[in-house]
Specification:
Helix content of chain A: 40-55%
CATH superfamily of the largest domain in chain B: Butyryl-CoA Dehydrogenase, subunit A, domain 3
Radius of gyration of chain A: 22 Å
Order of helices and strands of chain B: HHHHHHEEEEEEEHEEHHHH
Oligomer: heterodimer
Largest sheet of chain A: 4 strands, mixed
Number of helices of chain B: 11
CATH architecture of the largest domain in chain B: Up-down Bundle
Number of domains of chain B: 3
CATH superfamily of the largest domain in chain A: Butyryl-CoA Dehydrogenase, subunit A, domain 3
Distance between the termini of chain B: 33 Å
Number of domains of chain A: 3
Number of strands of chain B: 9
Number of helices of chain A: 12
Number of strands of chain A: 10
CATH class of the largest domain in chain A: Mainly Alpha
Helix content of chain B: 40-55%
Strand content of chain A: 5-15%
CATH architecture of the largest domain in chain A: Up-down Bundle
Radius of gyration of chain B: 20 Å
Strand content of chain B: 15-25%
CATH topology of the largest domain in chain B: Butyryl-CoA Dehydrogenase, subunit A, domain 3
Structural class of chain B: alpha+beta
Shape of chain A: globular
Chain lengths: 395, 356
């Protein structure tokens, strides 16, 4: 039993820190710290900086342009990025499609798409959920039918994160309506510029534009855009979801949130004293901090296990459940610590208006509401409980 | 980073677990834990012969362990078996004797049973509130005050008492025969004692002992947390097993999602509790030991109560019976919160760090 990093891992951490100190542009980290939406240009700039260092495709094998990191190194990298308020790597091409193509794609697909993901030529989005297929993803209805050398796609996808920036979308489509739900699904790559695709923004609870719905009407896609075997898309879908769950505890983001809560509670005055000295509020912070401290170790334990076994196990579901709840609790505390100062809509209060909190806190209510998504996406926390029930409790 | 036990510790865990499983089955435990002397003297001797106590002290003090992880391994095994033997007193006394650089061979061989008396009725947890007084005489010291719920005090030969002397805390040894001791059994099994001190003769073990007492408390907390993790593992496994066996409405009740999800939530909290215990064990003896001990004891208090209450609820009536083991595990899990600082006390300790 030893919780400390090895000498090599510590050296790696210093290397990451030095890189972030030198390369991460201040206007980008300021934007991340403020908690508002990042522009496409900011995300692309950050990706390019990481790519130049060879640190963009953190989970790809070395042969495909990944850095060849161990799970622990990947964890250290993510932890340091959070500490420095670097943007989250946009996951759809890099952490979702990339590993899928590496595992299931043809040589030609790998050679064509992977370099374009790395250099930012293609921005990808994810076509999984549908209005009638959320937790019950296998009931999806978007249809892909063979017509000569093409698939013809009709249907609707939804909750498509950052689809407004995307050049391509990877879709789960029903290719055999007669088979059992899981057995008739295929994984197909679609150019967003194809005629018949219409993207409509969905305005979210806090007013932001993060997700979209996408309509497909007789969209013709070359036959070669199928990944893996026809009707074997469910296997790919499950593979991808496992990758999506690693790092989903969001420990780094919760560490950020805790620091923010404490900073706000030190500045906010109640009855002539800083809020952090109010025993009721301090107790709430303390409880969340203790939960987070345990989560850090739980996260490392799972990481250690993944490193030993070569793949993350069903325990990642436990991480997802608890990690998201802790993060949501901290976001709630940040909002509550501000009190009425959290109420104004972001951007509505000019800097000259001193009644309200400092400008770096203006997004707190928005972030609280936006973060309710974390216990819903990537397989809702209830679905995670079903997974644990089946795989770990064997009930 | 390594979350595996070393070979030595794994061997210790296996040996102790096997011994307890063979010699201390839960039916036997239920019998001995609630009747004077509230433990099994014969099994205590066998356990001591296995070397269980040596694992609690560092080599410099004649032991073979003494780190947080050594302690955790021993107490997790004790927790699994719901063992009521007075090992906690031995551990905490060993920490104090080590700090005092005093001989502890009699402790490690089990020849002398030790208890540590910190708690007072009006000062259950906070060292700074201790009011028992030590007075120096021509021949040594005498102590006056009342120590409460001294775990293992009902069978201890020697009691190490925290008492005030000239404003500072000292540790004093009192021979049980010299004090007015009332032993009793506990709701969750095992025993404790009220120790009345009235000009009771004592020997000074360690002066200016605040740091040593805090270290003994920290070690005791690691032990209790590990004990709780062991007991929670068994309780959860028993509950999940029952969900598979028990049929109502024609199906095993484990087919009901409302119970499945609660069983998962228990597991999540147990894993979190295991994690914070590992952290507290790793930090024991270090600069931040008290902080992480407080974090661990707070989380254990919450998790243990959840596991206790949920396991009873999900079993239904059977877990309300004396005969069924889960009821005894549940009692231990709930009552250990009141040892060495409860959930709220330790939350307030963590909060103290926030003041500017």
């Amino acid at each position: 039993m030893d919780l400390s990093y090895s000498k090599e891992e510590l050296a790696f951490r210093d290397e990451v820190r030095a890189f972030l100190a030198e390369k991460l542009p201040k206007e980008i980290s300021d934007a991340v710290r403020a908690g508002g939406e990042l522009t496409k240009a900011m995300m692309e700039e950050w990706h390019a900086l990481l790519n130049a260092r060879g640190w963009l495709a953190t989970i790809w094998p070395k042969d495909f342009g990944g850095p060849g990191w161990s799970p622990v190194q990947k964890h250290i990298f993510e932890e340091e990025c959070c500490r420095a308020y670097a943007p989250r790597i946009v996951p759809f091409g890099l952490n979702m499609l990339g590993p899928v193509l590496i595992e299931f794609g043809s040589k030609a697909q790998q050679d064509h798409y992977l370099p374009r993901i790395l250099d930012g030529t293609d921005w990808w989005c994810q076509g999984y959920s549908e209005p009638g297929a959320g937790s019950d993803l296998a009931s999806l209805k978007t249809r892909a039918e063979r017509d000569g050398d093409h698939w013809v796609i009709n249907g609707q996808k939804t909750w498509t994160t950052l689809g407004q920036h995307a050049d391509w979308i990877f879709c789960l489509c029903r290719t055999d309506p007669e088979a059992k739900p899981q057995a008739g699904i295929s994984f197909i790559l679609v150019d967003m510029a194809t005629p018949g695709i219409e993207l409509r923004p969905i305005k979210l609870i806090e007013g932001g534009h993060e997700v979209n719905e996408i309509f497909f009407t007789d969209v013709r896609v070359p036959i070669g855009n199928l990944v893996g075997e026809e009707n074997k898309g469910w296997t790919i879908a499950k593979f991808l979801l496992t990758h999506e769950r690693t790092g989903i505890a969001g420990v780094g983001f919760s560490i950020q949130a805790l620091e923010e809560v404490k900073a706000i509670a030190r500045k906010t005055m109640r009855g002539g004293r800083p809020l952090i000295e109010d025993p009721l509020f301090a107790a709430r912070i303390a409880q969340a901090e203790i939960d987070l401290e345990a989560m850090k170790i739980t996260n490392l334990r799972m990481l250690f296990k993944a490193q030993a076994q070569g793949a993350p196990g069903p325990e990642t579901s436990l991480l997802k459940i608890k990690g998201t709840v802790i993060n949501q609790e901290l976001r709630d505390l940040a909002r509550r610590a501000l009190g009425p100062a959290a109420a104004p809509f972001p951007g509505h209060v000019g800097e000259g208006n001193l009644m309200f909190g400092p400008p770096d806190t203006e997004h707190n209510a928005a972030r609280y509401f936006n973060n309710r998504k974390t216990s819903i996406f990537g397989g809702s926390n209830e679905i995670q409980r079903n997974i644990v029930t089946k795989t770990m409790l064997e009930l | 980073m390594d979350f595996n036990l070393t070979e030595d510790r794994q061997m210790l865990a296996d040996t102790l677990s096997r011994f307890l499983a063979d010699q201390y089955p839960v039916e036997h435990r239920i019998k001995v834990a609630y009747e004077a002397p509230y433990h099994d003297p014969a099994l205590w001797e066998q356990m001591v012969e296995l070397g269980a106590l040596y694992a609690l002290a560092p080599e410099s003090a004649g032991g073979m362990g003494g780190t947080g992880f050594d302690i955790a391994v021993v107490f997790e095994a004790l927790g699994k078996a719901l063992c009521p033997e007075p090992v906690l007193g031995a551990l905490m006394a060993s920490r104090l004797l080590t700090a005092a650089d005093a001989d502890q061979e009699a402790l490690l061989t089990g020849a002398t049973k030790y208890a540590v008396a910190i708690t007072e009725i009006d000062a259950p947890y906070a060292l700074e509130q201790i009011s028992t007084e030590a007075r120096e005489t021509e021949t040594g010291f005498v102590l006056s005050g009342r120590k409460s719920t001294v775990y293992g005090g009902q069978v201890a030969d020697e009691i190490l008492v925290a008492a005030r002397h000239g404003g500072r805390l000292g540790v004093f040894a009192v021979t049980s025969a010299d004090a007015n001791i009332t032993g009793y059994g506990m709701m969750d099994g095992g025993g404790a004692a009220e120790v009345l001190l009235d000009e009771t003769p004592a020997r000074l073990v360690l002066a200016e002992a605040e740091a040593a007492l805090q270290d003994a408390v920290n070690a005791g907390i690691v032990a209790l947390c590990a004990e709780a993790v062991g007991a929670m593992d068994v309780t959860h496994a028993t509950t999940v097993d029952y969900l598979k066996q028990r049929k109502q409405f024609g199906v095993p009740i484990g087919k009901f999602q409302v119970l499945q999800h609660r069983a998962v939530d228990m597991l999540t909290e147990i894993e979190q509790a295991r994690s914070i215990t590992i952290k507290a064990a790793a930090e024991l003896g270090g600069e931040d030991a008290a902080k992480y001990a407080s974090m661990a004891k707070n989380m254990i208090g919450r998790a243990a109560r959840l596991v206790a209450e949920e396991s009873i609820q999900m079993h239904g009536g059977i877990a309300m019976t004396w005969e069924y083991a889960v009821s005894h595990y549940a009692k231990r899990l709930v009552m250990l919160d009141a040892q060495l600082g409860d959930t709220d006390y330790h939350l307030s300790q963590v909060m103290k760090g926030y003041a500017a």
